[in-house]
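Run folding on both entries below.
>entry_1
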Amino acid sequence: MSESIFNFFEGYIRTHNLFSDEEIATIRSMAIPKRLKKKQYLLRPGSVCRFHTFVCSGCLRSYRIDDNGIEHIFSLSPANHWVSDRVSLVTETPSNEFIDALEDSAIIQLSVNNFKTLLKDVPNFDTLNTKIITDECSTSRDRIYMMLSRQAEERYRQFIQCFPQLHHRIPIFMIASYLGVTRETLTRIRSSMICV
């Protein structure tokens, strides 16, 4: 069971062409495989984030709940994505966010200490980490721009383009939350797209 999780993670590591077989073995030795059931939490507000998490299968979401009890999803992490609360990780302060599984998921986790060890002992691991952070920053900036400058239908079309495998797998109200629109608006957009 965990062997397939390790193999997926190793395949991801190898795609970057940064590491020797020995370095990959070192990374693998520090990686913790885990399975999450649908709706199982990885992180809750008030807890300190202790792991860098890579998604091998399934999908996780990061979100907050406002004072009116409304969920605001700001990150979706399907396979081949990393997820964590980096602020909580780095500052070792309690998180303000939830991270949970939208479906049964397989993940790899690296503890903060093991991650630091890899940064120190495996030179190109820092290169990989920089790429991960840069990609996350780019994705966040693109998403902010989309939310500020695009109409709801354009946002949904971009969502389908960014997550072609997800728009049929997760509930419409969660997609609406991610896009910052109401469920009714998204239902109407979907209907009009089908009719065209």
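>entry_2
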Amino acid sequence: MIESRQKTARMLGWAGLIPFAGLAVTAVIGAPESVQQLLIGYAVAILAFLGGSLWAGALERPADAPAPLIASNLLLLAALPALLMPLSAAAGWLALMFALHLAAEWRWVLTGHPGWYRRLRLMLSGIAIGLLLVAAMGGTANG
């Protein structure tokens, strides 16, 4: 059962990068703005989803400070303006939000998780951040 959950987590995690790759491609080729906005919205939604890890980690350790709960909300609120920004600015801003989330997650949550999951989260976040930076550079070149 545990092996099945690990396999599913890995599969869903890697599949979740496909829209980030799509965003990078749309930025480089200059796809329609509606497609770009859809993919920026996806990135904001994933950041909101990842905020749940900070909540789960904080709720597992009720004696610790509430910093992860506050950080998850602040990161999402800070990410929302990306929905109104041009692609290059939005993608760059979201890359920063994902990096800050990863730092918060590593500090408060991931230390209590198994090694395979920590490595997976580091790889997935690192690739998402890299693809967002490619999108930011591609959007700058095309916009």
